[in-house]
Amino acid sequence: MKKKFALSFVALASVALLAACGEVKSGASNAAGNSVDEKTIKIGFNFEETGAVAAYGTSEQKGAQLAVDEINAAGGIDGKQIEVVDKDNKSETAEAASVTTNLVTQSKVSAIVGPATSGATAAAVANATKAGVPLISPSATQDGLTKGQDYLFIGTFQDSFQGKIISNYVTNKLNAKKVVLYTDNSSDYAKGIAKSFRDSFSGEIVADETFVSGDTDFQAALTKIKDKDFDAIVLPGYYTEAGKIVNQARGMGIDKPIIGGDGFNGEEFVQQATAERASNIYFISGFSTTVEVSAKAKAFLEAYRAKYNEDPSTFAALAYDSVHLVANAAKGAKNSGEIKDNLAKTKDFEGVTGQTSFDADHNTVKTAYMMTMNNGKVEAAEVVKP
Fold this sequence. Notes:
The protein is an alpha/beta fold and 386 residues long. 44% of the residues lie in helices and 19% in strands. The protein has 12 helices and 14 strands. It has a 7-stranded mixed β-sheet, with helices on both faces. The chain has a 5-stranded parallel β-sheet with strand order 2-1-3-4-5, sandwiched between helices. The chain has a two-stranded antiparallel ribbon with strand order 11-12. A hairpin with a 2-residue loop joins strand 13 and strand 14. The radius of gyration is 22 Å and the shape is elongated. It starts with a helix and ends with a strand. The relative contact order is 0.14.
């Protein structure tokens, strides 16, 4: 009798455990979420402040913190000061998920800004959703990332948008009929851009090569490429490897235009490529300091320079806007669920990177620029469309 009871208890516990797992997998959430404090509004930062893509995360942390400082100096939100809980996800997807859990369960934040990258954002969103806390990534661009995700918002254009822009630009501006496609095969971001480019490019892809994050020697692939007949290299990837590829390609005498997505943004790309070899480079950006900007963008630019003694990247600008989007949605909200609902209703919010309106899947389309770089300096920027 005792043995039968024990077995029944184990079976019942197993069913309960499976049911609990089912709840997590289904994306069930606490609809009300975390309550907004009477005196402060807690916002969590989940950025890549160290690790492989720290250049993106540190830029976003700076832009986000500047926005918080300005909002608090102006009186806060409904008279409440923003309290930041800043966590480093170390450029690791597992850590991004753990940071989210800590922010929503221990710190009880009402919204999260970050991560910067698509992979880390995908890892983080389940725990935010379960807690009923909205998460806005300033720069995660993977197509389909927000599909079915009620608590996830994206502050910039998607990978497919970038692939189409690059296709249009190399065809109509650079008159490239034959290209080499050289893709980071370990990155969903890079693979998304590459797929969109392949689907939209009407010319010939004479070589379709790949590398992976962490690679440092690209001589073998570049030797194969060098002997091809081509007009440009399309290089979807992040700044670390892309910069090294540019450096090694130029060192081998490959002088054709090299075009990338917004992963080229930042001084770190130039550091890897070296200023001497970073010429005839084109890349996408959501923000530009080299073209005429709005009064709001000009004020941001001046404030960022004053605070950090450097120019902001597009990542800093997107994070700055993301905090302002959260602050706008937090007005009158009693809990994180209401902040999420208000974010979803956002239409034509004027930020430093242009207007933001979230569609049904919580994605946004922004103005994009194609930047021209020579000798490690951006010389021109022009508005581009797919």
